[in-house]
Amino acid sequence: MADTQQVDQKAERKVARLAKQIDTFAKAHGGAEGQVAYVGERGARIVLVGADGGWGDLVAPTYEIAEQAVAKSGITTHESFDGEFAAKVQTGPYEWKRMAGIQIGG
Q: N or C end of the chain: which has fewer CB within 10 A?
């Protein structure tokens, strides 16, 4: 029984840490929206898009922890990274060069 409480406390700390990181991102970018995506055994990816078009992501150890962190932060969440949501992302020369490099083996 003590193990369950210890795991729950560890999960709660992780949720709080992720929620704080989401809040920090949102404040730096004039607000934020997000989407949680399951990435298999690694857990879940929280994709964040700021009101200014800046973007970033965080990885949570489980989908449940990711959902709890997003809920705790209070940001708007999307079911999928659809066209309307993706259009809010501002990409610059760095991202375009990086994406092109991946395509041509760089």
A: N
SS3 content of the chain, % helix, strand, coil (to 5): 55, 20, 25
Q: What is the pTM of this model?
A: 0.79
The sign of the CA dihedral 67, 99, 86, 90 is positive
Cα 94 from Cα 87, distance rounded (Å): 18
- Candidates 100, 25, 7; CA nearest to 61 is 7
- Beta strands 55-60 and 76-78: pairing type? unpaired
Phi, psi of 12 (to 5 degrees): -65, -40
Structure tokens at 43: 């857990």
